[in-house]
Amino acid sequence: MAPLLNLGILVSGRGSNMDAVIGACLKKSIAAKVGVVISNKPEAPALQKAKKASISTVLLEHIKGEPKEVYDQRLVAELNKYGVDLVILAGFMRLISPVLLKAFPNRVINIHPSLLPKFPGLHAQKQALDAKVSVSGCTVHFVDEGCDTGPIILQQTVPVLPHDTVQTLSERILAEEHKLLPKAIDLMATNKVKLHPNRQVIIES
Predict the structure, then answer these.
(1) Which residues does 174 contact at the CB level (< 8 Å), separation at least 6?
(2) What is the C-alpha to C-alpha distance for residues 124 and 5, in angstroms, rounded to an integer?
(3) Confidence band (pLDDT; 50, 70, 90) for 1?
(4) Which residues fall within 8 angstroms of residue 63, CB to CB, at 6 or more apart?
(5) Is 178 an annotated catalytic residue?
(6) Catalytic position from the list 112, 141, 163, 178
(7) Are 85 and 77 in contact (CB under 8 A)?
(8) pLDDT tens digit sequence for 73-83
(9) Domains recognised in the chain with CATH numbers
(10) Cα–Cα distance, 76 to 195 (Å, whole number)
(11) Residues 9, 85: contact at Cβ < 8 Å?
(12) Using only C-alpha atoms, what is the Rg of the chain?
């Protein structure tokens, strides 16, 4: 039996996607385990949730005036300390530098609440409503040096209803995120995600 993929989850807030991943790992529905949860925010509810699940946690706050590359050096050291294979950005409200990407080449993924390349960056649900689209959704993608521009691994559509608000649309998209992220992690864990040199992702059956 192949060893479980060891995950490092980076989070800044409540950690609902983190919860979904932890739950999938505990149910053994994905071939992975959570080795460490790291947050840059001491008040992040995700830290307490992870502790209750008996998962190692690290608070890694940003030091005033510290370049993001220096912060990411500290981040890489913590991830390596826990033997992390794959880095998951699950609501981590910091821009990632090449320091992290070079330390974990093609091993950093993110979940985003839109059908990329549409509506990257912050407030994607509001962007979708403002654009009056009929369909939005969520995307799991590899992280690169751009803002939500990395190769797409999986997407799931969510209809935009006539009377949707940012909150109602966000809630329906989030429910799909909770399913899509563990699915993408399992594909990574079972070596079914192939990233070609042209940056195209192929999912093998």
Answers:
(1) 16, 17, 113
(2) 30
(3) low
(4) 71
(5) no
(6) 112
(7) no
(8) 999 999 999 99
(9) 5-203 (3.40.50.170)
(10) 23
(11) no
(12) 16
